UniProtKB/TrEMBL annotation:
Organism in which the protein naturally occurs: Aspergillus thermomutatus
Lineage top rank: taxon: Eukaryota
Name of protein: NmrA-like domain-containing protein
Molecular function GO terms recorded: oxidoreductase activity
Domain NmrA-like: 38-149
The entry's keywords: NADP, Oxidoreductase
InterPro entries: NAD(P)-bd_dom_sf, NmrA-like, NmrA/Isoflavone_reductase-like, PCBER-like
Lineage of origin: Eukaryota, Fungi, Dikarya, Ascomycota, Pezizomycotina
Amino acid sequence: MENDLMKNIIIIRVSEDLSYLTKLGWFNEQGGGSLRSILLRSLLSEPTFKVTVLTRESSKARGSIPSTASVITIADSYLLENLIKAFKGQDAVVNAITSFSVAEQHKFIDAAIAAGVRHYVPSEYALDNNTPEAQELSPVFKDKATVQQHGYTDSWLIVPRSPRNSFPGLHYPSRIITFTDDGEGSFSTTTLDNTALALNRVLLNPSTTANQIIFTSDFATTQKELVETIERLTGEKWERKSISTNEAIPALKKRWENGEAYAGYGLINIGFTKGTYSGHFEPVGQVRNKELGLLKKNLEQVVKEALAEVGHPGFCS
Ligand SMILES: NC(=O)c1ccc[n+]([C@@H]2O[C@H](COP(=O)([O-])OP(=O)(O)OC[C@H]3O[C@@H](n4cnc5c(N)ncnc54)[C@H](OP(=O)(O)O)[C@@H]3O)[C@@H](O)[C@H]2O)c1
């Protein structure tokens, strides 16, 4: 349908700054981790879309924005009138704002409505934030749920996460995995490639996904299965450590309340890996990978790709 066509897309900048990943010890310290500009590059690869990036004055990442994207720079305060001006003429807003600022989105949604934007994709890429357990665990999950409830005509959401480079407790350089309790909690995973592809597909077919939470999962796994797969493929033994959630959750909450941002990531990590915080979609929800035409992936293939990315001997092409 012609009037369903999303042509002008504005994306709230996704960072190229990966320095903090090293501090977190995620699997791929060279280039995995956050969503970075993967969503942006994917949107730019779709000829139908005319993509604009909204970035803050203080942004250090402006130099890395491809020249095929237009750029609008606004003051860091994200004033409502500036947002409305930036959103005028756009068909869709894709927000990928940093985790600890997701609550800013109430303003972004109001601006999108005022500017006549038809679709708004919130900064999600998470577990199902609508359960009391998830909201109680992490302020970020709670903020994301509140944003969903803000209400927006014709809005839709995507709820995936990526498997190897976000939060599964892996530290490749020291070959250590830190289990959340016994490491046997099941969680759904979506690779970065498929996350970006899902975004494009949803924007290309907005009528089929409007006002819905879109669950995707390339496969479900556990931390234990993940490390056993790495060991089987590489022949190397990894050290197993574990955190007790009974002790870690109250300690992390206290540190978070004292202003320690990284404690917030610790809570998010537990949410993803414990298995009881609505991050395992297959048993409860409709997974939409097939309908969206996403690439088929399996754990072994993804682990091999990750080993190649970190330059593990025998896996580089
Ligand atoms: N499921 C997963 O595995 C997973 C993994 C990572 C992220 N996520 C989710 O994906 C979304 C994007 O996360 P991300 O890690 O890609 O974000 P990020 O790299 O930390 O930040 C994204 C952008 O937010 C903008 N921003 C606005 N206000 C900011 C502030 N006060 N401090 C820092 N940046 C600010 C910055 O853009 P400018 O500087 O250009 O203005 C920045 O580049 C979040 O909802 C996050 O929770 C999910």
